[in-house]
Write a structure and sequence with these properties.
The structure is a single chain. This protein is an alpha/beta fold. The chain folds into two domains: about 55 residues; about 250 residues, TIM Barrel (Alpha-Beta Barrel). The chain contains eleven helices and 14 strands. The protein has an eight-stranded parallel barrel, surrounded by seven helices. Strands 2-3-1-4 form a four-stranded antiparallel sheet. Helix 3 crosses helix 4 and helix 3 runs parallel beside helix 11. It starts with a strand and ends in a 5-residue tail after the last helix. The model has no long low-confidence stretch (mean pLDDT about 100). The structure holds phosphoenolpyruvate and manganese (II) ion (MN). Manganese (II) ion binds next to loops.
């Protein structure tokens, strides 16, 4: 149950009533409102208190992420770039940060083509321990240089609770990868950091589980969460993962949070990235993250799916046309 308080009202009486019923609660400040979240519903649903402006009994388990209490769409501001507004935000860059000069060159090229953010991994979640693991802190230093050179806000992955503070010092948005999307300790730490977060959908995660993962961050008072569909595991083997556009569309109907789509990882092949990206924007994605490299065939990770600069430029031209056709811009 959400008790949304009148502005400047004191929640202490309400909290006493909740505690008297042996229910659990959290006081959260989100989107300019103070909310007392109390559960289970059955213990608290008859509570009346002067401090409450409106109470919302959610029909969904993800109460704060649900659109039932917040009808307006949330806009996540990442260093001045707004995700969830009329404009579709494209974040582009290499899978992994490999080298400073290379990263800056890619960033300048994607910026010229219309990307509004730079993405690149310093900490890489690799399936094999023998694969390139990323440059770690050195990669973060390079990302800082990219920002200084281009002004593009940085989104990069954080894999470990011990690194959240450090990565947050360099990045404008923290990515939680598919493999960590139910690492509840990490979700709570990123929630506490209040940094904008890009939450990938785990490859075996239902939409409800994905939204409950977001709920962990919202419950820590971090409302700056963007959900990112990146393909799920299915019986289908012709693509690397099955891009679940249907779920992205559905998710937009049940949450106020913006939705991103990553067409690169489900494609697994660069020739499939463009049509999937176009489909995602046509279906209402608020953000795309796309892997781009100067010489993709030499990339140290995901070399089959990264686009060349040339391919990215062509993609951006087509994306603009699709965005316009659905009342958006890029
Ligand atoms: C990535 O974005 O580089 C990445 C590793 O993605 P995912 O977590 O979706 O596999
Ligand atoms: Mn990758």
């Amino acid at each position: 149950m959400l008790f949304i308080l009148k502005s400047n009202s004191d929640p202490s009486q309400l909290v006493e009533k909740i505690v008297a019923r042996s229910a659990s609660y959290r006081v959260v400040d989100l989107y300019g409102r103070r909310i007392v979240v109390a559960w289970p519903d059955k213990l608290v649903e008859d509570i009346v208190d002067d401090s409450v402006e409106v109470r919302v009994k959610s029909s969904r388990p993800y109460q704060l992420a649900s659109s039932e209490w917040k009808r307006d769409k949330t806009i996540v501001d990442v260093d001045g770039v707004e995700i969830g507004g009329r404009s579709v935000v494209v974040a582009a860059g290499p899978c992994a940060i490999e080298d400073e000069e290379l990263a800056i060159e890619i960033a300048k090229a994607v910026k010229r083509a219309g990307a509004k953010m730079f993405r690149g991994g310093a900490y890489k979640p690799r399936t094999s321990p023998y694969s390139f693991q990323g440059l770690g802190e050195k990669g973060l230093e390079i990302l800082k240089r990219v920002y200084e050179e281009t002004g593009l806000p940085i989104v990069t992955e954080v894999m470990d609770t011990r690194d959240v503070e450090k990565v947050a010092r360099y990045a404008h948005m923290l990515q939680i990868g598919a493999r960590n999307s139910q690492n509840f300790h990490l979700l709570k730490e990123v929630g506490k950091s209040r940094k904008p977060a890009l939450l990938k959908r785990g490859m075996a995660m239902t939409v409800e589980e994905w939204l409950l993962a977001a709920e962990y961050m919202l419950l820590e008072g971090n409302g700056n969460v963007v959900l990112c569909e990146r393909g799920i595991r299915s019986f289908e083997k012709s693509t690397r993962f099955t891009l679940d556009i249907a779920s992205a569309v559905y998710t937009k109907t049940v949450t106020h949070l913006p939705i991103a789509v990553d067409p690169s990882h489900p494609a697994g092949r660069r020739d499939l990235v463009e049509p999937l990206a176009l489909a995602a924007v046509a279906a209402g994605a608020d953000m795309l993250i796309i892997e781009v490299h100067l010489s993709p065939e030499k990339a140290l990770s995901d070399n089959e799916q990264q686009l060349t600069i040339d391919m990215f430029e062509k993609l951006m031209t087509r994306l603009k046309a699709v965005a316009e056709a659905v009342g958006r811009s890029i």
